[in-house]
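Allow me, if you will, to draw on your knowledge of protein folds for a short while. The matter concerns a single protein, recorded as an amino acid sequence and a row of backbone structure tokens. Kindly check, if you would, that the fold set down in the tokens agrees with what the sequence suggests. You will find the record immediately after this paragraph.
***
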Amino acid sequence: MLEIDLKSRLPIYEQLVEGFKRLIMEEVIKTDEKLPSVRSLARELTINPNTIQKAYKALEQEGYIYTVQGRGNFAQGIEGKDQKEKLLKLKGELKKTMAEAIYLGMEKKEIVQLIEEAQQQVGGERDDD
């Protein structure tokens, strides 16, 4: 399910955040599905429970999960998120990243290919814009 690379420069909690985001976006973890408890996941991955808690807090702040007091953490559905602000932020980040990639020599067709791969990864075409 989740893999932690102890040799990575990316902090463990960020690896967890990215891993859970991927699982939620790919719908491996379904909307309203309960996430593993902090203690059980810490035991399974052999990492500090505070690290798990920090990752869950970050995921909740970003709108990927929600907490029900006394019951645990659950995956938040796409339809349940307030997306406008997040999308604006992501568009700005994408624009900067693409500009840098073009500056470094990436071709338009390569960018389009990356977009197509990302669409396949999250489950298909979306021609909203």
Notes: DSSP finds five helices and two strands in the chain. Residues 12-80 form a domain with the Arc Repressor Mutant, subunit A fold (CATH 1.10.10.10).
